[in-house]
């Protein structure tokens, strides 16, 4: 299993280092457990085009059978914020159906996840956090994929 | 003829047994880990493992194709006894693996004919074989796969290419590092481990120790081309390390580099310092602007002066009205006496100081005081209470007795408005809290009620059992009782049992009614929270 995971990630890495869609860039992939990507969102006044948002992918040895853990990271140098979105909590956890155990399919990959998140932000019209954000951020100790989000909204 | 046949059979048996032994020594190859010699068509790629299909299967429901192992692993969590089934990873159509899921032979042949590198290529095997034959290559042909030592009395393993040299399982020591090992592993030792073995650098043809190889290739190899030191300032030339000095002498950029770096550093420092200055300037400007606004409002509208200046009109305005001796003491009176009077008559010009109650301006109002605060038509001949109210509740300066009344009224209205806002916010918060609480109560009640009904059912069952037992016992008593009553001994015992049975029944029914009472209380509790929510909502509506 672990072999399949690393082999597939190697293949994805080769492809990602070649070409990526505009606005998506590989920041680091020092090992086959954690990668970071930068996203920028064109054509949405909520997200300034100069701003970049950092995604962290954590892969388990059973990737791609199991979904990677994908969250937004905040950092000060370089400055990266958590983008405001009704499905993104202030601690960076993203509520997106393809990332949880139910919605995940092994045919997804780092590139397709990045594109999904980018288009989720690009199509956003509400500059707000999910309901119960503060409470969730304070109390959540679960891994993102184990959380049962109540706010899944098929329209986004 | 028969001899030939026998010989062929023997050879085959030998071949098969050596293959079997070799398979034990060389574990089966994970075909997903292979490196392909040429790029392959994306259409031959399994979307799950991204390798050319391995034992491909087609889902009959949607025609999507995956490796058998890939789809099995994907569906491992949704195991069903009817065989692997789940949603298609590509299109989410519910599907299953049936006996006819295997794809056409053509796809299998195409993928099995792709050329791969031998999995022992890191050990030195240069072979490129078809994927379908790679296991055979390792088991039978690959010189870098293990097999049993050819010596009869030796049980150890050798690489196939060394097998012809006889048993290599005797101790030797490395000439370079003096480490002792078996001859069979000496070659691997030299290639990757031995720190004192020299390898020759392909670029500079120099022999370098294995342990120094990293630094050599990165830093010291004279043949590696390095960029000009002035690269950051614009020189794009690269030269071999050995000739770097020659270039640096002729390159303007390289000569200027130390100076430019120093300048860059100073510029960075100054920029940082400037940033601090800018921030300081901003703070100062903000302060200056605040001072300016205070000054300008004071000039424009003397009625709108801030809290600290409110004493000035008081001190100057009051003594006239009261005819008291002015000064600091009088200011104290104005500030503190408001709590003592609800409606001080406008004519009262002097008060005994014993009436002073120390209520600070802005402190919570006594309930009496809220009455005159209500907005509405105000009798024109009662200007005093309004000024007093006003003075107490806010730092706003009281207008002179004959001043414009419109401004305090407005102020009151706005205060009222803000209070109303506050109240509505609080009511919203309360409502939310209430909703959460009643939800919690509901959940809890549901569980409790379930438990209670379960217990009630149990009690009912118990009571039925007791009833049955009692009646059975009674019947038996009555049957045998007739005879024994003549003896006059067993009478009381029958009634005893009947009495005990009735007692148990009574106890059980008491328990049942207690349970029903508990259920009622739970329901009532729920109703109570609902009522409380309503009343609170009513109260918060101002
Ligand atoms: Zn596959
Ligand atoms: Zn499908
Ligand atoms: Zn080989
Ligand atoms: Zn041997
Ligand atoms: Zn050695
Ligand atoms: Zn060299
Ligand atoms: Zn140069």
Automatic annotation (TrEMBL), chain A:
Q: Which CDD domains match?
A: UBCc_UBE2W
Write out the entry's keywords from A to Z.
Ubl conjugation pathway
Q: Know the name of this protein?
A: UBC core domain-containing protein
Q: Which InterPro entries match?
A: Ub_conjugating_enzyme, UBC, UBQ-conjugating_enzyme/RWD
Q: Which residues form the UBC core domain?
A: 4-156
Q: Write down the superkingdom of origin.
A: Eukaryota
Q: Which Pfam families match?
A: UQ_con
Q: Which PROSITE patterns match?
A: UBC_2
TrEMBL record, chain B:
- Record's keyword terms, sorted: Metal-binding, Zinc, Zinc-finger
PROSITE patterns, per the entry: ZF_RING_1 (PS00518), ZF_RING_2 (PS50089), ZF_TRAF (PS50145)
Outline the residue ranges of the record's TRAF-type zinc fingers: 188-238
One family from Pfam that matches here is zf-TRAF
Q: Which residues form the TRAF-type domain?
A: 188-238
Q: Which residues form the RING-type domain?
A: 46-92
Q: Which domain of life is it from?
A: Eukaryota
GO molecular function ontology, one term from the record: zinc ion binding
Q: Tell me what this protein is called.
A: Uncharacterized protein
Organism annotation: Oleoguttula mirabilis
